From TrEMBL:
Domain called ATP-grasp: residue spans: 111-304
Species of provenance: Streptomyces jumonjinensis
Protein name: ATP-grasp domain-containing protein
InterPro entries given in the database record: ATP-dep_AA_Ligase (IPR052032), ATP-grasp (IPR011761), ATP_grasp_subdomain_1 (IPR013815), CPAse_ATP-bd (IPR005479), LAL_C2 (IPR040570), PreATP-grasp_dom_sf (IPR016185)
Example GO molecular function: metal ion binding
Amino acid sequence: MTEPQHILVLGGGEDQLPAYHEARRLGYRVIGVDRRPDALGAAASDLFLCMTTRAPDRIAAMVGHLDVAAVISPASDAAQESVAELSRLLGTPYQPAPDAVRASVDKGWFHTVLDRLGLPGYAYAQSSDEAELRRAAADLPLPVIVKPSDSSGSKGVQVVADPAALPGALAEARRHSFTGEVIVEEMLLGRHLSAEAFLRGSTLATIAVTERSTTGAPHMITTAHTVPAELTPSTEIRLRSMIMDICGELGHTDGPVNFDFVVDAADEIRFIEMGARLGGNGMPLLVRHAFGINTYEAALRLALGQPTELTPRHHRKTALRILTADTDGVLLGVDGTDAVRALPETVELQLFAEPGSRVHRYTQAGHKLGYLLLVADTHDALRAAQARAESLLRFRIEPATPRAASAAAPRSEELTEQIR
């Protein structure tokens, strides 16, 4: 009897875990790779390698004796270079376009692609030299955004409104950069949106354009997505055309791709960054509930060299809320889960932390505590359902550092963190 083939999944977090389950459902064994021994993917793997995903030669040497049919890494820009190299080393069917990989891991280079295409841009500077970055920042209007050029998940991202805070922000961004490169950008004003798309044969097979909410300054971390975004027809047509121009320039003809962008008061579209992979922060879940499309399966089948199915089964207004806490500490419990699940608009509630586990203030995407998915007939109904759910759902957290005894709030309130 022939042994089942393996699918190699780089990363073992909450946004990679569904790929493990999909691979198993399709009849494959799973090799998981993550540097964290307690990663969610560890328990879901047939073989788990506790190591960095950024060492393709070492990974290939450890799995080369196995029949690896595909390599995938949803939601991780950092692993895309390894996906490309492992696909080459292991001879799997899907080979990512090199320029699309580079645009995913080098924010400054992505800006140069936009410049080549003549698409609207904005001021930025990228360098590993702090003095050069400080000089560039001095020429930009405050506030500016400082971030690693090659990281994802909002790690090391800060809005800087005071020049005195710039050196600290540069150092923090560099700490999260694999190459030491940091980018300083003009801060764009307008509506923050995202596009989660999937190309097939150089055509846009599906796209979900979402209204994106963030924490605001200083970290600008995503807190929610709502689909469909309320765009004018002409803006949506321009967006689709611009996305196809970018993908064509990068040679990205097949597969998932996501973009963050801003639409300003003049209805101008300015792209911020992209990733030639499935999006993070639960975007595939959002697409599944909004359109009935399983992009995890589609991405796996593409990596396996198989036909993909991307036909929408329905169109529903859907909101995804990222559940977070406002303090570091130990999770004591979660109240209101049954009541939230009983709401007619709730289609899915996922929690990633269990009572007794350590949780962290939401300063990067990896600190999320769960996802809440809601569907409704109108955007107003979605907003009302979200407000109702937030009033019911609470994490009880014992802070890592006890609050001052003089604090006005009683102890019971100190231990309760409302979902933001």
